[in-house]
Amino acid sequence: MLEWFRANIDTYNFSMEKLYKTAGITRQGFHQKKKKRKQDVLFYQRLKESVIAIRKEHPRIGARKLFVILNLKGKIGINKFEKYLSGQGLGIQVKRSAQKTTNSKHAWHKYNNLLYGYKLTDVNQVWASDITYYMSKDNVYYITFIEDLFSRRILAYSVSDNMLHNNNVKVLKKSLSIRKGSDLSNLIHHSDKGSQYCSLNYIDILKSNNIKISMAENSMENGYVERLNGILKNDYLYPRNKACDLKSLKRELDVVVRLYNEKRPHSELGNMSPIEFEKKQKSVRNNKFEIVLFNFKKHNEDRFLKALAKRMDNKKLPNHNNMAGNNHSHRSSYSLESCSSAELSSASLDGTNI
């Protein structure tokens, strides 16, 4: 057999060369492609292992943030990476809930929204706060936190089995303690119009520290922290499934906030974590980085004017075409209720736009 192979090797080589030529490739190209295929198999195997390892700490972290953490730029395209995760069953489903935590049906201490189109250029310009729920078996707990909108850092937080205003007061005092010594002269505190934020104690602390008060007209106008609610619960707490009672939830939230503040990249922050971004901002002189908050007031005014203009245009007198009975006639009325709801184009700042 060996002798036959040696005697026919030239014929074999000739046949292979003919095959390469017919296929339009070279012998070298064939072996390079074969080698690359083996490398790709190893690459995707290690990639899947890395994604699974990261998801142990960040259970629902998205593809674009994984792309940054794993430093995949130049190795695989983001779209191809997303398709790969989906094909491997590693995609993320969006979870939504209609649970309500805000009661704004009270008549005292209501303030206007001061953030329409507001420009942020540094930390301690806007702190946003909210209350969200966490359900564990038959119990419901409430998480209160304050976030610096410029750096996305969670300053302080608390967990309780009630929605009393003293939980909010505790978080506010802790936030002030964390930022002790910082310039708070331009600080605005933003929240919804829940009774906790309108309590006399809470308002007095804000006023005594010369902090301006801003309140959203609806949940969309507090979109940054509403989005943070979803990240904390749906991307971390529920998937990690380590909080079954109040004590364990407090312990788990400590871990989750640390992961969010220190390890989770934000595309708007140059793919840095909030803590990393704040440290870099301190070392940069003449900072030109800025964030412009969404202007809901202008958006609603523009939408109203467009609807009004269309309505007036639709009241034109009939022309020759629509009198002739064709289908080009305009509608005679236009309901403002048919306008699409305001989109949080800048309140969804993870590129995903986290």
List keywords for this structure.
single chain; 354 residues; 12% strand; alpha/beta; five-stranded mixed beta sheet; Nucleotidyltransferase, domain 5; disordered C terminus; two-stranded antiparallel ribbon; globular
Would you give an account of this structure?
Residues 317-354 have low confidence and may be disordered. With 354 residues, the protein is an alpha/beta fold. It has helices at residues 2-23, 27-55, 63-69, 78-87, 165-178, 200-208, 223-240, 246-262, 274-283, 296-313, 320-323; strands spanning 119-120, 126-136, 139-148, 153-160, 188-191, 212-215, 291-292. β5, α6 and β6 (212-215) form a beta-alpha-beta unit. It folds into two domains: 2-87, no CATH class; 119-283, Ribonuclease H-like superfamily/Ribonuclease H (Nucleotidyltransferase, domain 5), CATH 3.30.420. The radius of gyration is 29 Å and the shape is globular.
Instruction: Work out the radius of gyration.
Output: 29 Å
Strand content: 5-15%
Number of domains: 2
- Topology, number of strands: 7
- Helix amount, in percent? 40-55%
Strand order of the largest sheet: 4-3-2-5-6
Residue stretches low in confidence (pLDDT < 50, at least 5 long) are 317-354
| Architecture (CATH level 2) name of the largest domain | 2-Layer Sandwich
CATH topology of the largest domain: Nucleotidyltransferase, domain 5
Number of helical segments with 4 or more residues: 11
